[in-house]
Amino acid sequence: TEVTEKLEEVVMIWIKQIRKVLVESEQMRREADDIGPSAELEHWKTRMSSFNSLLEEIKSSRVKKIINILQAARSKTLKQWKELDGNITIAANEAKDNVRYLYTLDKFFGPLAKASPVTMMEHVPSLMNTVCMIYCTSPYYNTSECMTSLLLKITNQMINTCKMYLCEG
């Protein structure tokens, strides 16, 4: 029982740390007013990397051994552990899925940032069709918050490109 208590203490520390990561990942992002859409992709790539690392750690043999010992001891901490394990898996899947969908927009980021206003407008219909496809098919990214954030960043990039064009001319 002494070993079980020590292992439960370790798992409770992990649970607190994982909860902190999950809470921080759900907090509002503070971003510059003129940030472009490539920042959205970078945000989700970073988040995917973080959650994948956390999942790797959770699935490691060291952690599995501790969890197996606590299962044999019928520890009450496992209920919280399993819930958090599921939440981390969901967050990792969301980030991975969002990166996959946002990569479909990557081909538009260059023309949005470097084109003249006239040539930039040639890309807008395809860009909007791709955004629509993301909204219609993504299981995670189809919320009004995500779409608003993405469209705002696209608009910011278009405005920045137009400003640079006007300043050069």
TrEMBL record:
Residue ranges annotated for the Dynein heavy chain tail domain, each copy included: 5-167
Origin superkingdom: Eukaryota
Single annotated GO MF: dynein light intermediate chain binding
GO annotation terms (biological process): microtubule-based movement
Gene: Dnah8_0
Name recorded for this polypeptide: DYH8 protein
GO cellular component: axonemal dynein complex
Pfam families: DHC_N1 (PF08385)
